[in-house]
Specification:
This protein is mostly helical and about 150 residues long. Among the domains are: about 50 residues, no CATH class; about 35 residues. Helix content is about 80%, strand content about 0%. The chain contains six helices and no strands. α4 runs antiparallel to α5. It is rod-shaped and about 115 Å long. The termini are far apart.
Length: about 150
């Protein structure tokens, strides 16, 4: 990389050139702690992680990769558990909704059946020439409803 050929055009580019120059001159095999100014820049953080990875021995790299594999596995499992919880919650909600709908349907069916039974009984009593007032008292239907039969 030839930084002398890079001509910064503004303050931001000048700051970036200084950061990269510091990265190239300050970071080496003896670096234990990276200056915070370098860690603030995402591109330099990526470069640092690459340097760190390639500075490892084979054994260190093996355990480093195992560590990140484990982190990824835990992330996937956590996400799967979360999704299972959503699926379970949806299933419970659906079952609750179905049960509620069935109960409402049963109640409506019973009420409709009771009304039909009252009308049928009123029709039979009317056919037997029973007084409309009496039919109303027995069935609970209004006189108007009985007269329509």
């Amino acid at each position: 990389m030839e930084l002398p050929k890079f001509k910064p055009r503004n303050v931001l580019e000048k700051k970036m050139a200084v950061l990269w120059l510091r990265f190239l001159t300050e970071i080496n095999e003896n670096t234990d702690e990276v200056p915070p100014e370098l860690l603030e820049n995402e591109q330099i953080r990526k470069a640092l992680s690459i340097v760190e990875k390639f500075s490892m021995t084979e054994t260190q790299l093996y355990y480093y990769e195992r560590f990140w594999d484990q982190v990824n596995r835990e992330h996937v499992l956590a996400e799967a558990n979360y999704n299972d919880g959503l699926t379970k919650g949806r299933a419970e909600g659906k079952a609750e909704g179905i049960a509620e709908g069935e109960a409402k349907g049963r109640a409506e069916g019973i009420a409709e059946g009771a009304t039909k039974e009252k009308l049928e009984n009123a029709r039979k009593m009317k056919d037997l020439n029973i007084n409309t007032q009496t039919i109303s008292q027995v069935t609970g239907l209004s006189i108007e409803e009985i007269e329509k039969l």
